[in-house]
Amino acid sequence: MNSEQHHDRLISFDDLREDLGGISRASIYRHIKNLPGFPQPVKVGASTKFRQSDRDRYISSLRQDESPKAA
After folding, report:
1. 3-state secondary structure the chain
2. For residue 29, how many other CB atoms are within 10 A of its CB?
3. pTM across the whole model
4. Cβ atoms of residues 49 and 12 within 8 Å
C-alpha cells in the first residue's frame, strides 16, 4: 500500500453527489458501472464511501476534457 492510499480520506455518497453538482444517486450508480475512471465505491460496514483521491482525479479529468483544444 503506498502512502497516498494509506492516508486517503473517505467521503460519503452525499459528499460525492454534492461535488458532482447534485446528481442523483441513480446517476452515480449508472456512472459507477458505465463511465471509465468514475470513482468506485468502498464498502465500510453498511456504508458506501468513496476515496477522495479518486473523486479529485475524476473531477480533474472532467476539467481537462472541458479545456479548449488547440486547432
Report:
1. CCHHHHCCCEEEHHHHHHHCCCCCHHHHHHHHHHCCCCCCEEEECCEEEEEHHHHHHHHHHHHHHHCCCCC
2. 13
3. 0.78
4. yes
Residues of the chain where predicted confidence (pLDDT) is lower than 70 = 1-7, 66-71
Q: What is the pLDDT of residue 3?
A: 47
> In the numeric block, which cell numbers belong to residue 59?
473531477
Q: What is the mean pLDDT of the chain?
A: 87
Give the per-residue pLDDT at 69. 59
Strand order of the β-sheet with 47-51 is 10-12, 47-51, 41-44
Dist CA 5 CA 52 (whole Å) = 10
Task: Name the grid cell of 55.
Answer: 473523486
Output phi, psi for 26, to 5 deg: -60, -40
